[in-house]
Structures are given as C-alpha cells and as structure tokens.
C-alpha cells in the first residue's frame, strides 16, 4: 500500500524540480561540487553564512577568495580538482555585488520576506494555491531582556497583522477545519529561547518565569484572534525544559481551554515516544487538544557534536534509518490518538508521506484528521502533489532579515545536500522509486549508540564529563549536596590520619557570599612545621621513589574514583567556600578528576625506559627519575583542580610533595589531602601545610626543596623564581620553578564575526566566576566597523547577567573571593572611570563580596585597565581599525596567557594562529575552560614558565632524564637484538 | 672429488665425538639450551666469562643466579621455558665449587696448561700421536710497557723451554719437513698487540718502533733455535698495521733470511686476496719463504658491531657462505704459489678439508706442501681423521692462566655453538653428509653489504662517522690539513661579510702546546656592541621567524655539508688552537655535524602542528613559536661541537642568536660564524661577539635576551641563573636558562669487572683531552677485593701514556688549554698530595701548558679532590667495601653529570641503573664521548638544568608552545573529519 500511494505522489510531482536544484549557475557548479566534496561544502556554506554581515563589496570578494580560492588564477578550480571550473564559473564572476545577489536569490527561495508586510503577498499566494502556513519569525540569538522583549513584540505584531491580512481571504474549507473542529488561518511558530536571555535548563523555575511572562501576552492575543501557536523544538539540551514550559503554561487556568497550542517533537530523539505518551496523558487531564508536529529533527549534527564534546551520551538516534523507523512508529502512535491531538507531519520524504497515508487508511481516519507540513521553498514538487492529492498542507514559512536568516538558510542547504537527503537522492542522484519507497531497514546498523566513554578505562584518557544539569537528578543531587554541606558548616576539621601536627593558628574559611558564615576551620602551619615536613618528605622519598610505577598510577586513579564518588559534595564545598556558581564548581571537580586520570595514564605511557638508537652492541636507554621534594603552592580560584594537577603530577612521577593550599580556600585543600590519604599516598610522601605567604617563602627557600610548582599572581611567581635561583647553603640541586601566573587576556572581534557568538563569548569569558580566572578575558578589541553595534548589544547582555548567590542554580556571576579582592577591583573601577569611558557598571548590594560586571570602552594601551591584571569582572574594550592593528593591541602587554578571536575570515584566523602571542588561543569560542589533554594550558612572556598543565610535556618537569648506555659487546659477542 | 675425499674423512672420524659435545651434565642441558635460546646462551657465556675473576664461592652462586635465574625456586627452568630442568639440573647443583670445577673442566679441554711446564706432557702426547702444534700464550690485554715486556719475556721463556722439551722427542718426519725443507718442532703464535701498549693504527711509525723493539729479541732467539713464529691476526682495525709490521720487520737485513716467519690471514676479510697478492710479490723480493695460515676469522661479531657502531663500512663479508667461497678461492691461490709460501689451512670443516685436498691434487702437489691447523680440544674426530689420512696437522694450543683464558674459552664456545658452526651441524644437528659437503652457494645472498649510512639522507638522522685513521688516506689528509693551517698561523681574520663592526680589542689565540705561537687574531666585542647586536637581532627576528621551517632546516643541513667539506682543516685548527689530539679534534667535528643534522631533522619532525584530542567540532592544535633573541655562551673544550649544537638548535627553531665563543677558542668561533653565514643564515639573525665574561654578563642581563644557552663552569652557570631570574626594567618575558655545567664524575669498578676493560676505560676517561671534558672521569671507586691489583695496573697504564704535542698522531694526552688552567690543576695536585696518597704523577716538561696525568688513591669524600671539579688529568681513587657503598660514594657530590660502572654482575648493573644519580650513566665502557641522538647528554643536581643536548627534548626549550583551539562547529555544522 505504501508503494501504491508513493507512486501516486510521485506521479503527481513529476516534471517539477525543487527551486534549489534548478539550473542556475550555482546549482550547476557550486552545489554539485558541494555534494561531491564535503570540504568544499563546508567552505561554501561558511562563506554564505558570513555574507550578510559584510557590508563592503570588496570584502565579499576577498572572503570568497579566502574561502574558495582565487578563481582568477585558476586556483579555485585547481584547489577543488576541477580544472574546467576555474576559467568559467565562480572565479570569472567574482564581483561582490554578483555574489551577494546570487546568495540573496537563494535566501529568498526559503524566506518569504523581511517583514510580515513583505511576506503577505506570498502567504496570500499560498492560500490561493490551497496551502496553509505557519510563520516563523527569524531573529538573532537573544542575549538580553531587551532582545527578548523585542521578539515578544514582533510576535504580537505579526499575529495582529496576519490576522488582518487573512481576514480578507476567501474560505478554503480544507484548510480551516480538522477532525476536532475549526482551525485558525493564522499559525505562528515560536522560538522559545528567543523569549528570554535566561532560558537555562539548570534553572527550570527561573526559566519558566522569564519565558512565561513574555508568552502570556502572546497567548492572550492568540486566544482572542484566534490563532494557533506552535513551540518549535530546539537543541536537545532544552527539550525537557520546553516540554515543561509547554505543559505548565497550558495547564494554567486561563490557558487550559486554548485548543490551538502545539509543539514540535523530533523523531530523531530517543525519548520522543515517551514524551508523546506523557503529553497524551497530560492532554487527557487538561481537556483541550494540542497539536503535535512530528519532524525528523534539524539539530542532529550540532547536538551530536556538542554532546560528544562534553562526553555525554547522545540522546539521538545514531542512524538516519533508525530515525525513519521511529518516525513511522510515532506516526502510528499519533494517528491512533487523534481524538485528543491534532497530528501534523513535517516531512519531505515520499516514503514517509505514503506511509502516513497507509497508516491513516488502516485506522480508517478521515483525511482532515492530520496535516502535512513542509518547508517554504523546499521540495515544491511534493508540496504540489500533496495538495493535488487533497490533503491539508501547511508550509513552515520564515519571515525576517537576511542576516539572521543565514543561519536558517545554511541549515536548509545542509538538509538538502546531505548524503541522506531524500531530495538529493531523488533529484540529484535519481535513485529508482522502489529504492526511495523502501521501508527503513535497521538490520546491519549498530543498534546501540557507542557506549559513553568510561572514565574507568584507564588506558585511554577521556575527559570527565561535566554534569548535565538539564537532567533533574543532577540538579537534585546538587541541592542535596549543598544541604549536606550546609549542615556541617563551621566545624573544625582535622585529617583522619594526622601525620604531622601543625602548630600554626586555627584558620577560618568564610563564605564570600555571606561573609559572616564560617564554612569550616582547619589547622595551619607555622614556619617550624616546614622544616619538619621537608625532613619527613625526604625520608619518605626513599620508599616512594622505588614504589612501582603501577602502584603509584593506581593510587592516583583511586584518588580520581574517590573524587568521582564525592563529586557533588566537593562541588558544594567549593560553592560555599569560593563562591562558585554550580557549573563552575562542577567543572572544577571534573578538571581535578581529569588531571588525576590524565597524569596517571600519561605516566604509565612515559615511565618505561625507551631505547635510543638501534646500533648493535650498545643499549642506550632513556630513564626518568623523580627530582625530589616538591613544593606545590596553589591558588584558590580552582581550589581543587589546580592543586590536584600539580600535586598528582609530582606524586605519580615519584616525588614527595608538600602542598600549601591558598589561605583563601583551606577547606578544599583539606579535602584534597583527605582524598589522597584515602587513595593510599603514604604518610610523609604528601603533606598539607595550610598557610600564608610566609609558609610559601620558607618552602621556596628551603635547600632540600628541588621543584616548586606554583600557580598564582605574577608578582609572587617572579619572586619565587628569583628566590629559587639563589643557591642556598646546603642546596644540592638547581631548583626548578613551574609558575603559572597572570594574564591580561584579549578577545578580538572582527567585522566578519558572528556577533551572537562573539557577545556571548566575551561576556562569559569576562564574567564567569566573576572574572577570577587567569584565563578570563579582560580586554575586547573590536573592529571599528562593528564597534558601536557591538557595544550596544554588549551593554544589554551585561545588564542582564544574574549576579547573586551562587547557591542558586540560575546565578551567572557570584561574589569575588574576599573583601581584599573586592576592594582591589573597585579601585580599578575608579581608575577605569578616570582613564576611559564607562559603558556599564553592574550595581550589586548585599552582604557578600559582590562586584557588578563593569565595562570600559575606548580604552587605549596606555591605560592601566589595558595593562594590569584586575582579576574581577571588568572588561576594557578597545577599538581597532584593522585586524593587524587588533593583533598589535592584543600583543601589547607583558602577558601571554589566553586570547580569543571571533572572526569568519579564514585569513584573519590564520594570521591569529601565527601572530597572536598567547599560550592558549581560542578561535570562535570563549577563552576559558581549557580541557585537560585537549587544551593543555599555560602561558609565556610574564604569564608563566614551564610546560602546559594537562599536556604531554608537563610530567617530565618533575623528573630528571637519565641516559644509561651499556656496552653490550663482551668477549666479542653481544646479546641477540 | 671433494665429495669422495670428504666421505673418506668422515669415515675416518666416525664413532668419535668432540670433547665439548660429550654427554656431561652441561652439554646435555646448558649447552643444548644455549643452542636453542640465544638469550640463554648470552647469559651462560657471560657467566662463564666472569667466573675466573670471582674468588668467593658464595659469589659464584649469586652470580649464577643473577645470570641464569634461581634454580632452587624453579625459576631457572621456568625462565627458560623448560620445566623439567628446574628440579634436576643446574639448579640442584648450584654450589660455587661445583660450578667452578665444571667450567674449569671445559676450559682444560681447550687450554693445554697454565704454564709451558704444565702443557709439556700434553704437547709431547700430541707429538706422539703424530700431531704438531703452535703454542699461543694467553694473557691479559697489554696496557703498559711493563705488561708488554712481560709478554716478550714469556715468549722468550716459552721458546727456550719448548726447545728444551722438544729436543728430547723422537723424530716424526711428517712433521719436520715440508716441500721447502726442514721445519722446526717449535712454533709460537704471537699476539702482536700484546707487545706494546701503543699499538695504534693512527701512528704506524710509533707502533712499529714499539712493537719491533720487543719482537727483535724473540726473533733473534727463534732464528737461533730455530723456531717458527706466526703473527696472529686480530681485529680488522689493526690488520693493515700488522701486515706493515710483518713486512717491515722481516725485510730488515738481519731477519730477511729467516724462513720460519708467518702470519695468519682471515678469509672473512674482503681484502685478503689483495693482501696475499701483496705478500707474494714482497716474498719474491725478499727471497725467504713465509708461512700463511689461512683462517676463516674469529672476530666477525665484534668487528661488525664495532664498525657499525662507528658508521664505518664493514670490511668483512656479510655472509658465512661468502667467507666459505672466499676461503676456497684463497686456497687455490695459496696452493698455486706454494713455491714461495708455506700454506697452512686452519679449518674444522669437512667440506673445506676435502676441497683443499682436491685442489692440491689437481695441482699435483705433494702432501707435505701444506699443513692443516686445528684448535686444541676442538673437533677431535677431524684431527684424528686428518692424521690418519697422513697429513701434517698442527694444533693451535693455548697455554696460560684460566683468567685470561676465559676470553679465549668463550670465543671457542661461540664458534662451536653458532648457527653456522660445522661442528654443530654435524654433531648436534646431525645434518646429512651430502649437505655438509655441498659447496658454498652465493646465490640469494645480498652480494653487497648494506651501503654505508649516508649522512645526506636528511630524513633519518645517523651519526657522522669519525675518521678511520687506520686508513692511510685519512692520516695523510690530516697531515696536509695541519700543514695548511700552519701556513696561515698568526693572521688576523675578519668575517667575509661583516655585519656588525666589533669595537673591542684584537684578540690573540695561542697554541697551548707552543704558547709563543699565535694561532690567529680576531676582533672582539665591547659592551656597547652588545646593545647593537641585540637590536639588530630583534629586528632580524621578524623575517626569520616567518621563514619556512623547510628553509631553516635546509640552511642548517647546508652548514653540515660545509663542515663536512672543511672537516680536516677545521680539525687542524682545533688541534692547534685547543691542543686536542687528532681523534679528539676529529670527534668534535663529527659531533658538530651531528648536532646540525640531528636538530635539523628533529625540527622537521617536531615543527608541524599536532592535533590534540579527536573530538568533533573542535580543532585543537599544538604549535611551536620561537621564544626570541637567544644568547649562546659557549666553552672552549668542544669549541665547535658545543656552540654548533646550541646555536643551531636556537636558529632552526626560529630564534636569532648572539653567540659568545670562549675567549680561549676565538678562532673556532670565527669558523663557526663563517660557516653559518655561508650556509645562508641571514645578517643580523646570527652574530658572533667574541669576548670575555663582561660580554656574557651584558648578554645575560639584557632585557631583550629571552633564552640563554650556556655551557661552562658551575659557578658561572649559577651566576647566570641568578642574574637571569631578576626581572630587568623593560623585560617582557621570563628568561629561560639552559646551563650545562660541571661534573665530578665517578667510575665504579666492582670485583666482577673485566679489569682489562676497566683500566683502559678509567684511563681514557680521565686523561682524554687532558681531562678537560665535563664528562671526564675524576673519581674511580674500586672494590676492596681488587683494589691493590687495580692500582698496580693503573699506575703502569698511566705511566705509559704518551703525553705531548697533539700534532703528533700518537699523542694520547696533550696540553691543557692555558697557563691559568695549568696553574689551577697544579694547585689541586698540591692539595691532593696533602690530602691523599699519590699513586703516580706524570712528569712533563717543555714550553706548552702540560700537566702529567696524576692519580691519588685512598681518597675519601671529605677530600677536596673528591668533591671539586679540577678539569685536568687528575684522578681520585676511592675504596669501597661493597657495591652499595660504592654507589653512595659515587652519589656523594653536588654534581650529577656522568658516571660509569665496570661490572659483570647483572644485579650490580641493575642497581646502578636505578640509583647511580647521574645524567649519563655508562656501563662497561668509558664515560666520555656521548653521541648525538644515541646518548643525549646532560646532568642535573648542580651539573646542569635543561634538557639533554642531542636529545629529543632539547629543541622545545627554544620555543613556546601555543595551543590553538578552534570551535569548528558553525551554524550547526562542522567540517568533515
């Protein structure tokens, strides 16, 4: 039956070609080429993506060359392996105007108009052809309340205008009534994330409040008109949240009766059947029906990539065939429940269409009981066929500017050209109808998606995934951990196995968000304790250095397991002791575990002797031996991860360690010590000397301390370096200092940048953990062409940050670490106000050590706020008239730690790769959050010395390399090789 | 015919088994096992080798376990995969006495007696059985004139005694006359290398004088008796020299008529046919006949290994079959010339015997025209057969102590058990006679030996071979280069393209061997020049850093080619400027070339970006960028190699370099500069500031110098480190200091050591280049059990060193670098005399800065000569009562550079691997002469900081590591992976 119906549709659509595949210049060459060459496709689509933000025609040509090669010199053709192309096609026509006009043409295929007014004639035209529609208002990403309000207002305005336009239209019964009754002519698809800058699954309550407040007026209007409202589904991470918002809102008494609400669900999502079941029982309680628009899902690539990057199990089906099969199964579910829902099927697949028909027929449903949805400008022959067949078809019709429309356009192009696109198979590859109509086959597919990388697999390092706070159980666990820790506040903690009794004063740790709250108390070290600790460490070294590599590696892996077990509790301590928001605290835990796992795995790899040379009769081996007693002097801003990294590197390589945690985070130092003890690090091999600078200095100058691993400020670091380079009486080894110091990190935003990304990236880079990361952004260098627009959006975004108590999951910016830090930052704000122009100053109050995110603009290199590390949520924005100038500005401090570039110019990105003089350069992403192993971290110039943390060269800093060369030729013979 | 004769021999030998294969315990188990398992064979033979030097029975058991595993715990059997063995054999019998007695039994199979008296009855017995003999006096390696004299005296004594013994014997006509007349009953085989401690092919004249002086009395006696004298052939390196000595000596008027001289030639040597032709024409001139003993050759393994280690073409045939074929061809040559020579054929191969018979028969020779030679105790069935067949057989019969006899024994065991041993094939593997008698087949063998590794192959690094001064053309080239350089002495040299005009005074370089001789003059730098040089370097950096890796690598390879071209000339400059003996100067050239080739190849390998992690949607790359202006502060003791290494590493990685050569070797600095210019290093990127400490200090403190590569003394190095760690005004980067400093290097000699090797190793390690190497030995730590014997031989060896003008090829110890050095060393000699006991003080005189090699004994750690670096040919000997104590002594200085161990105890060697705390540890070899790539060089503690020179981690010290992380996910899609 499916085949029979499919053939009918095929006949009805015959002789037509989708607009996209018509034989214009670019469908002949560029698009065909894109389908053959995925690298070219990337370049082409990236080029299309950047186009609307470039206003200068000459630059359009430059960018075309950067992306696609130089047509004039035949490079274009040669590069892509197509000689014939070089002379005749893209190359020959490279004029900015022509390119822009070509791309705009394509865009207009998919976008009905820039405004509702502009789109109205095309919508009218559809109606006249017997096709309904659902308008989608294209827009930029929403990064402020103002932008969210604007989207709300645009929705309201669109509803009003569309109602006015459609009121004049003739009646088309097929489109105005379904099996449950009359349906409105106007349908608006809503992008929920555009309705709030604070939509975040970590905080469902806050998200709901923010979104619902803007949804209600829209809903009120829709009810009045009436009009239909459909929630679009977005990235997988927000799916549960959107479902929650949907069901919560439409269960509100005022909206309970509204029968035209609906939402899209994605067949590629493994949970969709469950979600539909949930909705069905919810709908039965509620009473009024809802529309469910079943689509295959448009975020597969990005969701898959993002989840994999984070190490999370991908919740989507891995194979297109599975999605197709799921779609068919969901079709049956939806159609069988059409008494309470209005089924809508979004598809451009002939097989799917025929299958829906067959299912409906078998269920004996009337044709008005469901509708088809297709995308405006796509698969027109099928649109025609379905309409001819007498079915209700609704076209998903975008309305909006070209600039935000490009994201939409590229998504459509990808869909059309993907290997699995039905349209491509039919119209480009001309596959036979029988193949196209065959049911999805699941055999031969690996039925399960690859299992989540197991951190227990100690042979291959994988990053510990951060918590997915979109999952309720993760949120509950953190709430509970916070409660547990709260119940223990103020206690005096002693180590479960106290080796060395510390003789310094008791040290109190306070909550930066509530300074009157004592988080905990621990004993601190006196200078006399240093001597004793070093002596014990030197003694303990004898057995630790000969402990097998396997054993030491095992101990470090065990520590990782222990941290994993106590993860939420430790994160909760960190939230309370250091004022970190949830995600930041959780990330610190994940990074600490990463360091343990990475260094353990690395040492297992590096430790075995390696033969050098292959000459017979001699055996040369490289061996590593531990250097000796190591001092680790750690900061408070990553109070677990950074010391864990330094300490575990020293331990696993066979050194005893004396660890001085920051006096600002003694509790976290205490927990690290407990964990290492429990994991099996022997007494004496590791000890924790909580204390201030005097303890650090005593360690640095001690003649038996041979390695000093330090992370902290530049001034302290340079002081350590100087101290350590002076030979002390009795010193038997040149000290090695590893110092990770400060930064004055810049992000360059050029005129080709994606501003949605750039603003979000700059804001998160300068405000996350209140700017108290050495990697934090403290300068933004913005191209003059976009300077003003950038500042405008930046200001809004900064004003909309949620500054407050980090115990609340929705908090984006917490307090700074203590009063001293607050005072220093406020001093810099005063300096900035004198030097530069204040764009925005966040105002905060309350008992904690809060500092509002603050931005200075028109900053020049001579300003102190352009040169000095502030270590708070303060940003200095500088203007550059060229990318070269921006780079010069970026490099014009004595620091070289992190840096970032937001640009869609391949040439500029390449220039940055070469000349942006920082240890960690980030392109088109925020500049904090380096991952162990993948982004080894560390700077140079005055930002640090030593190898990058979390990188392959780190461990060898804790060892001496010994080469043993044996003459194996004896009495004229050598062992067999 | 060969087959027919072979079968006859086989019949005659039937029913007998060689003694070695008789079914004693060890032939059943150990020897069989050795033939199956080459690792076991190594261990077994090494154990046998060490036995005679161990006097303590308990230690014999310990060593047996170290080598062979523990029989008591069944480990022995398990380890070698033979369970049955564990309970019943070696293990069960592990008593020191039993083991020793077993091995002595085996030894007695091959050695006729400890003395001529002891051997006499067995020689008499042979004579009675119709077998002649040639006595070989076993002895230790000769490392002093006294030992050479002793060998001479033993030869004289043996001749006298043998003459007396044999005079009483009955006549055996077959053995007393050959085709050329009567032949003496007494034949002595001479080990020529035992007749002089100065036999060295680099100095044929000196070698001849030394050897001939001791040979003449022996020859005089042999002529009187008469007796026959045969030169044994030894390692390939001395072959030409021995031939020269032979022909020169026996052409002397007094010896021209002596008809019983002979020498052995080796069929495995590719030149033997040519050598025989040469001898034949020489013999015709001379008149009296000589004996040529043709053997296959017994040094194949060690010669091959040594030549390969040095990168020299191996002059021996690669395949046994080729040797066999050559033997047969030489057989024909010799037999066809028997009118002027007495052919003697050493073989234990049935096929060879039969072939000789067949050739002789075809030539119509009478059986007395040649003789067979076999080894005493080996292949007795064939001995029997040949005698029965009525042929003259002479047995090569060792006489001597068990200790020196072990080297001989092991060689015999190896021969018998090798895969290609005829005896093994017949008596162990029982191969069919037809196979055994088949002619050698050359097809299928790679006819040519593998070509010499080409240094031009820039992809794979290979060490530049040092000159083989056994070759006359190498010697001539060096003589000529010295003459060329001499003709240019005293000139003022300016750079061919002078960029920066130096404004310091003219600097004179003087010959340390003749201080009144000015080697050359160059301009030096003033402090003002430093500023200018840094400024120019910083400017030049801009283009150098963006020069492609390929180009920079090419320039460095070009520099290597230029050095190779000017190699002898540069070595000659070094001989004259720095007083290096030939080989030392040549080695410095080879090492300089190595550094260039190695760093260029390494950088080609390391420079490309490396991706980190494999997550989709992100591209993390590790990039290296040059750090910036680099100062290279170089020493004079490896005046080309060390600066070449530091400079080329900095240059190839993209840094500009300011090079300060030592003021003690300005000429070599000049030549390095010239070569780099010529190779294409641009103006400004490299400059040479010849000068003293003030220039070095100005460079170190300059704020724009970011990397300092220093090699020199500890005090200067620590001063640099301290200076460099103080932030200077305007300094924008933490300076990195790479410092290779001093050493107080020890060699441990334990009671199992091979003393021949140990004494030679200690002597060369402390005296080569007059001890002026940071790697030089300055302490010997000797086990009490061998202490006195060690000192006795050491004293002789030191007294016999040739101290003098390094222009003479035979010089072993030249002058020290200058008067200041001489005075300092002499001061330490005075200190040593007060602190410890003087064993030997080398007395030298003359105009140069000579210091005689000096040894102090009974030194304890508190002595200054045990702690302070002297940098001269001074050795402090310490006594240790255990290996553990020796290690403690060795580690009891603040240095950790090189160290060595001479031991044949696997457990001690392993302990040293683990606990001898030095950067470069050498086992059973001298401790100087680390090779680039194979033995990366450098120390720790106060000996240095930074990665090892010539190792894979060296280059990354000159760069900063940058990690670039790009978010490649854009608009929901990422480039294909």
Provide the descriptors you would attach to this structure in a database record.
homodimer, alpha/beta, 7-stranded mixed β-sheet, 35 helices, 31 strands, 45% helix
Polypeptide structure, described:
2 copies of one chain form a homodimer. Chain A is an alpha/beta fold. Chain A is 45% helix and 15% strand. Chain A contains 35 helices and 31 strands. In chain A, the strands form 7 sheets. An 8-stranded parallel beta barrel of chain A has the order 1-4-5-6-7-8-9-10, surrounded by 7 helices. A 7-stranded mixed sheet of chain A has the order 23-24-25-22-21-27-28, sandwiched between helices. In chain A, strands 18-17-16-19-20-30 form a 6-stranded mixed sheet, with helices on both faces. In chain A, helix 1 crosses helix 17, helix 16 runs parallel beside helix 17 and helix 31 crosses helix 32 (787-799). Chain A is elongated and about 100 Å long. The model of chain A is unreliable at 72-93 and 453-458 (pLDDT under 50).
């Amino acid at each position: 039956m499916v085949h029979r119906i499919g053939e009918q549709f095929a006949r009805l659509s015959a002789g037509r070609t989708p607009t996209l595949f018509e034989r214009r210049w670019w469908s002949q060459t560029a698009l065909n080429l894109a389908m053959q060459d995925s690298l070219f496709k990337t370049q082409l689509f990236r080029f299309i993506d950047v186009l609307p933000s470039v206003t200068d025609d000459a630059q359009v040509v430059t960018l075309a060359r950067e992306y696609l090669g130089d047509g004039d010199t035949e490079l274009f053709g040669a590069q892509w392996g197509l000689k014939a192309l070089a002379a005749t096609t893209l190359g020959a026509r490279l004029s900015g105007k022509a390119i822009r006009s070509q791309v705009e043409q394509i865009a207009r295929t998919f976008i009905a108009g820039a405004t509702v007014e502009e789109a109205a004639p095309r919508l009218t035209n559809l109606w006249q052809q017997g096709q309904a529609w659902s308008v989608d208002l294209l827009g930029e990403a929403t990064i402020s309340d103002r932008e969210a309000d604007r989207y709300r207002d645009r929705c309201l305005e669109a509803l009003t205008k569309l109602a006015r336009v459609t009121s004049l239209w003739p009646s088309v019964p097929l489109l105005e009534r379904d099996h449950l009754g009359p349906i409105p002519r106007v349908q608006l698809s809503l992008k929920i994330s555009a309705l709030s800058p604070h939509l975040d699954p970590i905080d469902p309550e806050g998200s709901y409040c923010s979104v619902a407040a803007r949804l209600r007026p829209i809903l009120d209007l829709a009810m009045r008109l009436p009009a239909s409202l459909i929630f679009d589904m977005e990235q997988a991470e927000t799916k549960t949240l959107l479902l929650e918002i949907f069901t919560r809102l439409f269960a509100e008494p005022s909206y309970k009766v509204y029968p035209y609400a609906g939402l899209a669900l994605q067949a590629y999502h493994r949970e969709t059947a469950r979600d539909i079941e949930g909705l069905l029982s919810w709908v039965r309680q509620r009473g009024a029906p809802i529309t469910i628009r079943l689509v295959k899902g448009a975020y597969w690539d990005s969701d898959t990539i993002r989840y994999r990057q984070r190490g999370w199990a991908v919740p989507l089906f891995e194979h297109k065939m599975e999605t197709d099969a799921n779609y068919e199964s969901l079709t049956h579910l939806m159609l069988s429940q059409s008494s309470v829902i209005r089924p809508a099927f979004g598809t451009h697949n002939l097989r799917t269409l025929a299958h829906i028909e067959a299912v409906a027929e078998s269920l004996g449903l009337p044709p008005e009981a469901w509708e088809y949805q297709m995308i405006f400008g796509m698969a027109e022959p099928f649109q025609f066929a379905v309409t001819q067949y007498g079915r209700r078809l609704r076209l998903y019709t975008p309305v909006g500017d070209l600039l935000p429309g490009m994201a939409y356009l590229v998504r459509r192009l990808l869909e059309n050209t993907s290997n699995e696109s039905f349209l491509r198979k039919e119209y480009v590859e001309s596959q036979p109808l029988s193949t196209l109509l065959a049911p999805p086959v699941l055999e031969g597919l690996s039925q399960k998606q690859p299992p989540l990388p197991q951190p227990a697999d100690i042979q291959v390092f994988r990053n510990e995934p951060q918590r997915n706070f979109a999952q309720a159980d993760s949120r509950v666990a953190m709430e509970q951990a916070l409660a547990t820790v709260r119940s223990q506040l103020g206690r005096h903690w002693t180590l479960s196995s106290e080796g060395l009794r510390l003789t310094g004063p008791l040290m109190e740790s306070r909550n930066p968000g509530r300074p009157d709250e004592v988080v905990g108390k621990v004993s601190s070290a006196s200078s006399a304790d240093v001597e004793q600790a070093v002596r014990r460490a030197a003694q303990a070294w004898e057995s630790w250095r000969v402990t097998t590599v396997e054993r030491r590696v095992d101990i470090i892996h065990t520590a990782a397991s222990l941290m994993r077990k106590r993860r939420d509790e430790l994160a909760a301590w960190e939230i309370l002791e250091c004022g970190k928001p949830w995600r930041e605290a959780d990330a610190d835990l994940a990074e600490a575990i990463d360091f343990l796992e990475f260094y353990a795995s690395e040492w297992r790899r590096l430790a075995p002797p390696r033969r050098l040379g292959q000459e017979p009769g001699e055996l040369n081996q490289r061996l590593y031996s531990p250097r000796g007693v190591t001092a680790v002097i750690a900061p408070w801003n990553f109070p677990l991860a950074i010391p864990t990294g330094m300490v575990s590197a020293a331990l696993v390589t066979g050194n005893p360690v004396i660890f001085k945690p920051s006096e600002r985070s003694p509790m976290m130092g205490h927990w690290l010590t407990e964990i290492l003890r429990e994991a099996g690090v022997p007494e004496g091999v590791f000890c924790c000397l909580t204390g201030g600078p005097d303890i650090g200095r005593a360690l640095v100058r001690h003649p038996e301390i041979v390695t000093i691993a330090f992370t902290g400020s530049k001034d302290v670091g340079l002081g350590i370096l100087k101290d350590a380079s002076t030979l002390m009486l009795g010193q038997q080894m040149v000290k090695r200092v590893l110092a990770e110091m400060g930064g004055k990190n810049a992000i360059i935003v050029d005129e080709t940048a994606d501003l949605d990304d750039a603003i979000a990236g700059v804001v998160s880079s300068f405000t996350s953990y209140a700017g108290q990361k050495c990697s934090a952004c403290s300068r933004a260098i913005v191209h003059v062409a976009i300077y003003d627009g950038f500042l405008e959006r930046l200001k809004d975004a900064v004003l909309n940050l949620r500054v407050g108590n980090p115990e609340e999951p929705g908090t984006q910016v917490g307090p700074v670490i203590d009063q001293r830090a607050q005072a220093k930052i406020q001093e810099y704000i005063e300096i900035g106000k004198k030097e530069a122009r204040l764009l925005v100053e966040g105002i905060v109050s309350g008992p904690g050590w809060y500092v509002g995110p603050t931005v200075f603009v028109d900053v020049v290199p001579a300003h102190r706020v352009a040169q000095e590390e502030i270590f708070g949520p303060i940003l200095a924005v500088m203007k550059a008239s060229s990318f070269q100038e921006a780079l010069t500005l970026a490099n014009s401090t004595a620091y070289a730690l992190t840096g970032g570039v937001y640009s869609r110019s391949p040439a500029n990105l390449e220039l940055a790769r070469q000349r942006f003089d920082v240890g960690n350069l980030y392109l088109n992403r925020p500049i904090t959050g380096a991952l162990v192993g993948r982004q080894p971290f560390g700077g140079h110039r005055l930002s640090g010395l030593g190898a990058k943390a979390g990188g392959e060269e780190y461990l060898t800093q804790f060892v001496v390399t010994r080469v043993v060369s044996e003459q194996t030729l004896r009495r004229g013979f050598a062992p067999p090789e």
